[in-house]
Each structure stands twice: as C-alpha cells, then as structure tokens.
Amino acid sequence: MLNFREDWLRLTPETALEPLIPICDAHHHLWYSQEAYSVEDYLKDISGGHKITKSVFVESRMMFRSQGPEEMRPVGETEYIQKVATRNVSLAKTNVAAAIVGYADLTLGSSIYPVLEAHIAAGKGSFRGIRHVVSHDSTGSVRYRLKIPAGLLLDSKFQQGFSCLNKFNLSFDAMLFHHQLSELAALAKQFPDTVIIINHCGVPLGSGIYAAQREPVFQEWKKGIEMLAEFPRVFVKVGGLGMEINGFQWSELTAPPGSAQLAKAYEPYFLHCVEHFGVKRCMFESNFPVDKRSYSYTILWNALKRITKDFSICERHALLYDTAVRVYRLPKKV
Q1: Contact status, residue 253 vs residue 8, Cβ threshold 8 Å
Q2: How many Å apart are CA 44 and CA 3, to the nearest integer?
Q3: Which residues, 6+ apart, have CB-to-CB distance to 320 below 8 Å?
Q4: Would you say residue 235 has pLDDT above 70?
Q5: What's the pTM value of the predicted model, to 2 decimals?
Q6: What helix, strand, coil percent values describe the chain, rounded to 5?
Q7: Domain residue spans of the chain
Q8: Class of the CATH domain delimited by 23-327
C-alpha cells in the first residue's frame, strides 16, 4: 500500500506558477477501499492554486460489483464514479471524472459486447474507454500490483475484444512497460482506426535489474516512442513517472523534490514525447494518488509548466488542456 506522508509532502512548499492557465488532468484515480483516496481527497490535492477545470478518471479495480456475472462486475466502478462525479459538479469548480475510463476483460473476445454496453449505460454520457493493464516483465525483478501474462497484446482473444472498442467509439488506455512498446505498435498497425492512449510515457522502468540500466532503457524507450508516433491514432499521456518502478526514488529523499529538480529529471522523457508526437497528440497527467508518494500535486504541475516555459501559448494550452479534452471528447469550454 502507498503511504502518502502528508507531513513529508509539506516540507517542500511551492506556490502555483501561472495559475490562470486552464488544465485538464488527463489521468487520475479514486480509491474506495482500505486505502481510500476519495473525490474529496483529490479536490484537496488540486486546491494548491492551479486551475484544474476537468479531469479524467482511470480504472482502479476497486469498486467492482460484489455479485453477478464475473465479467460484469467492473461495471460497478463506472456506476460508482458516475454518481461521485454527478454529486461533485454542484460542489466544486473542477469537473472531476468528466470522462471515465473503465476496465473490461478484453480476453472475453466478442463476448465483451454486453460489458461495453453496460459501461456506456452506467457512465450516462461520460464513459470514454477501456484500460486493460498489460504490463509484464519477464525478469521478475519489477514489483507491480498485477500479475499479467506475457504477450497479452498479441493474444488472439485479447485482439478480438480489442476490435470491439472502435465499434462503440471507445479508446484504449495502454498501461505497459517500455520493452512492450513494440508489441503495442504491432497492435496499432493491425487496428489503425482505434484510438490508443499510452499511459505514463510508456513507463520506462528504473527498478529491479533496470536500476543499473537507465541509459540502455532510455535508448530502448526512445525507439519505442518513435515507432508508435508513426500511427496517427496513437496518443501519449506525458507524466506518471513518480511510481516506484520508474526508479527515481523521490520518496527516499529527506524532503520532496521541488519543481525545478523534477523538471530537470523528467525533461528528456517529456520533450522526446512532444518532439515525436507533437503537442496535439500529447496530454499532461498527474497519475494521482499514485505519484503522490513522490511529490505534491502543486509541485508536479509547476514542473510541467517549467518544462514548457519556452513553448508558445497555443502549444502549452494543447498539452495542459486541449488535447485531453479533444481525445476524451469533453466540452472545450473551460
């Protein structure tokens, strides 16, 4: 379980930079379990001065139905989040979970149709896509919460289920590791009309055996990003590198990193994504509360603004707001 250590986070206070720029947080979670991270917790985190106007909720696998057919139980999460989002609209300036990305088992193949229909109905206009985590590392040295079989992206039943997404105008959020980017490229080539959104820059690993291989990993990751950038319906979420598996070890510091330190460390990754995908196919994300173990919400968005300080106004607005709003089909109005 994650330890948010609120006292530790307060050791590096910062004021929000350029607080009038609108932001759509393209990726966060809400948890209702023993380790809760509620909409109220999220609203508290975003209250540091940045203008967070909308957010995209991404599946957490924590609010499933407790009864009924196994394949339909993930719909419970969409039902729960939709209710939370509806209640929040009248309470806050931020439209939390304006878009919902849920989980469905794509290995169901064509049998996934009723599950997708149920998600769409439960989302009441907010359901936008599926994330079926495919992260796998054969070395066994990377700690990850889910045990995923190898080669899932290339599995015939998975691809059969994946083929159903475009028929419902649903996107696919791709959570995988850097050495799987070529597999994702093969999937994108086979299904060129389906929108694919790479999560967390494609997760360049930096823990386990990869801790001593940062430069080789970086070079392999760069090639994977360049390969995927060739497909116009593939997008990338720029952020999410505060996880333990990324290996930056921010949580081991006596105080959290400041935004300048964060920007310096992340800039090579973020700028490579922007260089090859362009601002109209990149969107900034917080990945909270997962990344909260490493730094505060305010510091993260300060770092993202520092990295793009020399970009044009239009380019910055695309990264901070416009791309996420367009890809997840949200109202453009701030």
Answers
A1: no
A2: 17
A3: 21, 22, 23, 24, 284, 304, 305, 308
A4: yes
A5: 0.97
A6: 45, 15, 40
A7: 23-327
A8: alpha beta
